[in-house]
Amino acid sequence: MADHNELGIMGEEIALEYLLKKGNKILKKNYRFGRNEVDLILKDQNEIVIVEVKTRSNPFMAGPEKTVTRSKQRAIIQVAQDYVETHNMDEEVRFDIVSILIHNGETKVDHIKDAFYPTL
């Protein structure tokens, strides 16, 4: 497995642990619809939380708000819609980004709630 894949998997585990400690409950990891995937789907009280995890090892790389483009947002929204419809869910849906920076033996987690919204 390529180093960047291992870094991504590690980041998803760190993000999941962080979000579970915040009281969220895991519904699904790596949910796929077509060619697209959502990293984490959680429940936070009465909301479904769709989480895109961005992991990096270089602090000078672009931040997560820049790497989750409109195109990526549309793909995430489509996957989320499929999950909600397939599971007959009626809760509100929130889209978050969790940025993980692993650098020089330190890990920094940045959680951006409501990072983007579905457009009509």
3D shape: globular
Number of domains: 1
Please tell me the CATH architecture by its name. 3-Layer(aba) Sandwich
In this structure, how is the largest beta sheet organized? Answer: 5 strands, mixed
Strand count:
5
Kindly describe this structure:
The protein is an alpha+beta fold and 120 residues long. It has one domain: Trna Endonuclease, Chain: A, domain 1. It is 33% helix and 42% strand. The protein is built from three helices and five strands, in the order H-E-E-E-H-H-E-E. Strands 1-2-3-4-5 form a five-stranded mixed sheet, with helices on both faces. The longest helix has 19 residues, at 3-21. The protein is globular.
List keywords for this structure.
120 residues; alpha+beta; Trna Endonuclease, Chain: A, domain 1
